Amino acid sequence: MTAHTAPAFKASDYKSDIKPVWCPGCGDYHVLLSVTRALAELGRRPEDVACISGIGCSSRIPAYVNCYGFHGVHGRSLPIGTGLKVARPDLTVLVAGGDGDGFSIGGNHFQHACRRNIDITYIVMDNRVYGMTKGQPSPTTEPDWDSALSPGGTGLSPFHPLVIALASGANFVARTFSGDPNRTTEVLVEAIKHPGFSFVQILSPCVTFRPDERGWKDVVHTAAVEETDDPARAARRIMTDDGFNIGILYRGNRAPYKLTGREATSDTDQLGEMFAI
Amino acid sequence: MTAGGFLLEAAARSGWFGLMTRSVGPQIRGGEAAALLRFSNRRVDVPAESYNILFVVDWLNFDRFSAEIHLTPDTMVIADPDSGEVPEVVVKSGARMFDMPVKQVLGAIEGGRPNMLATGVVGGIIGLPIDTIYELIQDNLGSKGEKAVNSSKATVEAGYRFAETLTDAPALAEPKKSDKRRWIITGNEAAGLGAVRGGVRFAAAYPITPGTEILEWLAPNLRKLGGALVQAEDELASINMVIGGSYGGVPAITATSGPGLALMTESIGLAVAAEVPCVIVDVMRGGPSTGIPTKSEQSDLNIAVYGLHGDAPHIVTAPNSVSDCLFTTQWSVYLAEAMQTPAIVLSDQFIGQAKIVIDPPADIAFVGKRLLAQNIEGEYRRYAVTESGVSPMAVPGVAGGQHTADGLEHNPRGTPSTRAEDHMTQMNKRLRKITGFDYGSHWAEIDGEGELAVLTWGSCTAAALEAVEAAREAGIAVKLISLRLISPCLPDAMAKALEGVKKVLVVEQTHSGQFANYLRAQYELPSEVRSYHIPGPLTIRPSEILSQIQDWS
User: Averaging pLDDT over each range in B159-168, B170-179, B506-515, which range is the top one?
Assistant: First the structure.
C-alpha cells in the first residue's frame, strides 16, 4: 500500500476499548501509545496488523491494540509470530513482550528469530524484573538487586539483548525509552518498515517493583554517533555503552527470509501420482 | 535396503502385493541392516511370522536381528561360507543352508555389488520376471551411465543363475494384476499426502526419529502447492509456529515423536483454549525418555490423551495401517478444522516407516473447512457461545474481526476473565464441540461377529485382523473392533459395537496396558476383559494374538 492511497488513520483508531491491567505510572502505557501512533503513521489497516505476545505484564498489550492479537504461552511469542508471518506474508506482524518472556524462557527463540531474519518487529519492554509474579530478577536485572527469590542479588552478569540480537543476525537493532513516546514512535516506524527482523528494546520502568527505575528519565541520552550498517561497529558501540544510549544502533542489509514467490505448481492429485509404480 | 526396494517394486510391477520393513543398528550411517519383505497376491499389512528365504551378505551382528527374523526348518539360508561362522540361533532353527560364494561371484563382475546379487538371488527364487528387474535398473541407475547399468544387470543375472540351482524353492502364488497402477508408499509419506489432501498448506518442523520423513516429504511438496514449511529451533517453537500459521487461516501441521510431543503439550493446551485448529502427528517410538528411537511402541497414548494441563478437550486419532496413515491424517485435518481444536494423530514407527504396495487410494471427501467469520458487522465475538460450540473465526485481514486469541480464560469476546460463569461457559463450549460432533462410522473399524471381541488400535490392528481371520478358519467366531478415534470417547457407538459381546481381549503394544486402562476408565465393557500388552521393540505377531484367542475360547 502506498502512502497516498492509504486511508488516514489516527493513533486512537488502533486503541481498543479494553482497560490495561498495568499499574498507574507503568512505562508500558507509553509503549502502547507509541505503538498506536506508529501504526497510524504507517497507515496499515488495523485488520492487516497482528500483535503477538507471551506472558507477563507487557505481554498483555495485544488486547489493548485494535488489531488482530494473540496472547500465547510464556516465552513462545516469536514462534507464533514467525508461523503467522510465513503463512501470511501480507500481514504486518509485531511481536511484543517483556525481558523475562523474551530473554529467559524464550531466549532460544530470540536468537533463532534474529538468525532467521523474517520480516517481523520484536518489541521488548525491558523493566529488568518479573512484575506479574511480583518482583523476581530477570536476565537483565543488575547482579546486586535484592529480592525474596534471590536474597542479596543473583550475582549474575546481566544478559545483553542488543548485542545478542546483532550477533544472531537481526537486521535492525534499536533502544528507546518509553518515557519518550515521540522518539519511540519514530524508531518503531523505522523498525516496522525495515525488511527482516527488527529488534527494539524499550526501557520501560516498573514503578511498582523497581521504583528506582523512575530515575531512568534522567539518565537516558541520545546515541552520540550516526547509525551504522556495519555490525562490527554496532557491536563495539553496544558493548561499550552505558545501557541508556537511545537510538537506532544498527540498520543492516542482511538478506531477509524469503517469503514470496510461492505460486502453486502442482495439485494433490499430481502429488499422489509420485507413488504410482 | 536397495535390494529390498528393488524386490518390492519389481513384485509390485508384476502384480504382487508386499510389505517391507527395515531394521538397522544404532549407527548413524552404514553398519548392519536388514530389509524384511513379505509378498503375497493379496494386500499385506503385517510382517511375516517367519521367513522363507534369508540372503546373508555377512553375519556381522546378526544377533541384533535374530528376534525379528524367525527362521524355521523350511527357511532357505543363502550365505557365503567365507563370511564367518553361522550364528548359533540360525543353526538351531534347523534352516536349510545353501552356500553361495558371494565374494567370488562379485569379484568376477566389474562393479558387482551385494545388493544387486541379493536382488537376483531372491528374485530368481520367488520367480520375479528378470526383465522387470532390468527395467528397474534402467529407471533407477540409468543416469549413472551404461557401465553401471550393465554391471548391475550382470550381477542380477548371476543371482538368477544361482537361484536356478536351488531345489525345493518357495514360489509365489499367481499375481493379481490390476488395471490401475498400484502405489508403493510408506506410512509417513501417506501421512504427508493425507495432510495436504486435507488442506494443510503450512508446516513447522523439528527433526526427530521416526517422524522426520513426514516433514521431509512435506518440505518440497508443500512448496509445490504454494505452501511453506519452516524448520524450527525446537518443538516448543514448531508447535507455536503451527498455531501462528493456523491463526493466520492456513491449515497447519507438525510431526514429531514422543519426546517432541512431551515438549509440545503446554502449547497444544493453548490451541485448545484459544481454539486454533492444528494437527500434530506423533510417530511413536519406544519410551520412556530417549527410549528406542528406531522401534515401535504405542506407549504415547496416555500423554496424547491426558498430557495437557487443565481440562483440555481435544482430538486423538490413530491410523490402523500403513495406508490408513493417509485417511486418518486427512480426516484429522478435517476434524481439527471443523472443531477448531488440536488433533493428535498417533502413528508409530512400524506403520510410519514400513513400505507397502496398495491399490491406489480412493479420493475421500474430507477437506478441512473452517467456520469463518466474514462480512462482520457490529461487535465481533470470537468465542461466541453457539449450539455446536464452534464459533465463526475471523482471520487476520478480515475487517471488523480484530480480537485477541487468548490462552487466558476469556469471555465470548475474548477479553480475559476470571469469572466462574465465563470459565464454565467456555469449558462447556470447548467440550461440546468435540462430544457433539458427528464422527460417522470412521471412529472404528469393526469386522465380524462373535461373543469374543478383540479390541485394539493403531498398528496392532493388522496383526489382530490376521489372527481373527485365522481363528474364524479354525471355527472360532471373533469380532474385531479397532478404534481410529481414541479421544473423545463415543459411549453410544461403543455400546452398539459391543452388543452381544461377552468377552473382550484388549491388544496393544505397551508395557503397562495403557489402552486397556483407558478403555476401562472410559467405557462400559463386558465383565470379562483380558489385556494382552507387550511393549516394543518387536511388533506383536498374529500368532501371539491367535493363541490368546484360542486360550480363551
Answer: B506-515
Is the CB of residue B500 less than 8 Å away from at least one CB of chain A?
no
Residue B355 has pLDDT above 80, yes or no: yes
Does the residue A20 lie in any domain? no
Nearest Cα to Cα of residue A84 among B265, B371, B407, B405: B405
| Residue corresponding to grid cell 507471551 | A54
- Decide if B224 touches A, using CB distance below 8 A: yes
Residue of chain A whose alpha carbon sits nearest to that of B330: A268
Kindly determine whether residue B202 and residue A87, on different chains, have CB atoms separated by under 8 Å: yes
Q: Which fold has domain B2-164?
A: Pyruvate-ferredoxin Oxidoreductase; domain 3 (3.40.920)
Residue B408 touches partner A, C-beta closer than 8 Å? yes
Cell of B338: 471443523
Chain A hits for B364, Cβ within 8 Å: none
Read off the pLDDT of residues A233-260 as tens digits, 9 standing for 90 and up: 999 999 999 999 999 999 999 999 999 8
pLDDT tens digits along B403-458: 999 999 999 999 999 999 999 999 999 999 999 999 999 999 999 999 999 999 99
Options 3.40.50.300, 3.30.479.30, 3.40.50.970, 3.30.420.10; CATH of B184-358: 3.40.50.970
Instruction: From chain B, pick out residues whose CB is under 8 angstroms from the CB of A116.
Output: 230
Span B117-132, pLDDT tens digits: 999 999 999 999 999 9
Please count the structural domains in chain A: 1
User: Distance from B235 to chain A by nearest Cα, in Å?
Assistant: 10
| Cα–Cα distance for residue pair B155/B149, rounded to 1 Å | 10
Q: From CA B526, how far away is CA A51, in angstroms rounded?
A: 53
Q: To which H or E segment does residue A36 belong?
A: helix A28-42
| Contact call for A272 and B193, based on CB within 8 A | yes
CATH number of the structural domain spanning residue A245: 3.40.50.970
CA distance A185 to chain B (A): 22
The CATH code that applies to domain B441-551 is 3.40.50.920
Can you tell me the distance from the alpha carbon of B79 to that of B12, in angstroms, rounded to the nearest whole number? Answer: 26
Residue A5 included in any domain = no
